[in-house]
Amino acid sequence: MRSLAVAVSKDNAEAVRQELLAQGVLRKGAAIARVGDTVYLPVTTAAIRHSTIEHDFRESFTPIRSYKDVARVPSHLKGSLPTSFDVVGDIAIVKIPDELHEYEAEIAVAILRVNGSVKVVAADAGVMGTFRVRQLRVIAGPDRTQTVHREFGLSYTVDVAKAYFSPRLGSERMRVAEQVRPGEVVVDMFAGVGPYAVLIARRRQPRVVYAFDANPEAFHFLEENARRNRATLVEPRLGDAKELVEEADPPDRVILDYPHGADAAYRAALPRIRSGGIVHYYAILETAEREECANNLSVAARALDREAEVLRWREVHGWSPVQKLYAFDVRIV
């Protein structure tokens, strides 16, 4: 079949696919095509920010639209089935409502049935503790929580029960990486298993990417992932980011992906960051709190004789019925 399409490099294909999917313009029924290093994404309209061409695609059919179609739960509980779940590598992580706990095995079987790449299903009881570790219980498949997750042509070993990792931040990680200029010193204050740091080191030309984490389990995978992706510009360091940033070279860019409370780390980084440097700050907020958060970033900077200008903010994804994860790009002078 012939369709309008967006042609992108294979390295940017996943980020653009996610963007088109979010806009509701990715064409269903047409399989994504690749020719050499170019990926063709079928779209339904030319009214998007990407230029479009015409391309031939193989038809793609999905007889089962969702695991909900085959989940064997009482009809009056169908509406309570989770609308989505995270997939890290070959592990599906799903939050099961209380009223569906006795049917969790049926839900897990349905997820495995319609997702051929998923081998393990784990029930998620939430993120807890200083290290933001998911409380997981395997409910289908082998009893393991370690996997390999692939993103933008790179691969990350992660144990989802020992180190936090969110596949939903893939597009955000690429958005930040694309802003890095040659020769920058980048500090990732809460690096986890390394998805920001490794991506920047491999796809951009920084001078160095300092990757800090206080969780020994996450740090183990951070070092492994830097090696497996040959990210030689990554310098992993174990410990408290507030102390480690004082030992690093003054950064041009700081990543604060700790949305449950990065204020102390932000204040620790402010005296170190070069004039004109950028902070990528994340926070979970209600919409009405967004302006207050931006103001607090400026107030904290002035208290240390710096100025903070919020260049842009964006909603990354939903978090709860009333809260969302927001990203703030902040210039420090």
How would you summarize this macromolecular structure in one to three sentences?
This protein has three domains: 2-56, Alpha-Beta Plaits (2-Layer Sandwich); 67-144, GMP Synthetase, Chain A, domain 3 (2-Layer Sandwich), CATH 3.30.300; 155-332, Vaccinia Virus protein VP39 (Rossmann fold, 3-Layer(aba) Sandwich), CATH 3.40.50.150. The chain is built from eight helices and 17 strands.
Describe this structure in words.
The protein is built from 8 helices and 17 strands. With 333 residues, it is of the alpha/beta class. The protein folds into 3 domains: 2-56, Alpha-Beta Plaits; 67-144, GMP Synthetase, Chain A, domain 3; 155-332, Rossmann fold. A 7-stranded mixed β-sheet has the order 13-12-11-14-15-17-16, with helices on both faces. A 4-stranded antiparallel β-sheet has the order 2-3-1-4, with helices on one face. The longest helix has 13 residues, at 216-228. The radius of gyration is 21 Å and the shape is globular.
